[in-house]
Amino acid sequence: MAAQAQRSCCQHHALIVALWSFAGAVATAALILLGIFINHKFPEKAPKYSVAVAAVAGLDPARDLSDRGRPTISPVFNVTVHMDNTGNAVDGNCVPDLSTAEVSYGDAFLGKGTVPKVCAGKRREAEGVARAWGQEVMVPWFLRDQLAGELAVGEAEVDVHLIRPHRSLLVCKAKIGGGLFQCREPEDF
């Protein structure tokens, strides 16, 4: 009888241990699933930036770029800065005041302008338009000829550097007259 009572006690103890182990596994799985749900429901991804160069003046291939009598050019670019903050459900983000857009082609500076403050709330997108311009800019003839040829066939791309005060630089390549093109941190290139 004592052996039967001891066996019953051991079985009871084993059953309790098994139930607690099962409850622990269920609780762990529930916590993991809750973490996945919260991370999916409230993500905190950094905003994505993109630019478009929708319009340009002062870069007419025949009049401005190919005229050997004009040693300089004075281009003006409308640069749309787009912020996609849809991956962040916790905070809004802004391109701060005094940010600039600097446009270049083949390492030749073409223009610079101030970007207006652009703010996107949680899970939102926003954009603003900057006017980048250069006055009497010296661009080497080989680059002017190359740019004129690319503009003639609709394939001209410029580099746009978004410079944010107290933050990092963003580098973007954008086709003139094309849609939005993704920006990257310089180390991503």
From TrEMBL:
Annotated transmembrane regions: 15-38
Enumerate the UniProt keywords alphabetically: Membrane, Transmembrane, Transmembrane helix
Q: Which domain of life is it from?
A: Eukaryota
What's the protein called, per UniProt?
Answer: Late embryogenesis abundant protein LEA-2 subgroup domain-containing protein
UniProt keyword Transmembrane present: yes
Q: Does the keyword Membrane apply?
A: yes
